[in-house]
Amino acid sequence: MANAIPVVKGHAYGNDFLLVPESAVAGQDLVHLTQAMCHRHTGIGADGLITYKFDGEAVRMRLFNADGSASEVSGNGVRCLAALVVRDNFGMSTVTVDTPAGPKVLELIGEAEDARTFRASMGVPSDIRVLTLDAGGERVQAVALSVGNPQCVVRVDRLEEARLHRLGAALEHHRQFPNRTNVSFVNIEARDRIRILIWERGVGPTLASGTGACGAAVATAAYWNGSRDIEVISPGGSQRVEWREDGLYLTGWAKLALEGKWLNPA
Q1: What's the average model confidence in pLDDT over 237-258?
Q2: What's the predicted TM-score (pTM) here?
């Protein structure tokens, strides 16, 4: 079928992405295509769409959130792409992914059944600051920062889905964040273990977020006496974040779940 688009679906802890060769969607309206393919009922269903192209020894990617908006990077998304690259290149154990937020180098450190575990260099966090924001009918103290994309982290005594839905959208669209922001709610269980709920920019609630885990880890270490080597537990599972002198390192797995073709009705 002339308009069919090859696609692989991957996920990391339930945070799912559609991986599409850049050449297969040349000239397409990627906003509309992303919205159609990521739709949970009429499409394949995903939190985002990633286009990719090999560029020398690296692979270049662009990420679009489910609503069609562009994003700089995704920690779970780069792992899904790396899982595809490793699958298709026998013996490869290091993958460099070029993103709009800079190159991310992923080391394959384990394979079990259908999951591949990577330790990824995620860069140096920046613009770390404390904000007091009026949102969702309340005054909120938050830590804002960038881990390649914008993060807003709120510490809570108890994780509540209702508050996530009420405050997540309000904080994402707060005037303090002209390009919108990802939002994480953090409950601290120990110096080296936190639990989070995530509201992703352009998506809404997700089961996990790699950059969200990084942002939550940095906020916890910087302001709430957390360890710089910490377990971050989301509804989808547990990831490890290390904040070292040369930047952040994120460890977790990714799986490839589906391979097929999108029968694009042009």
Answers
A1: 98
A2: 0.96
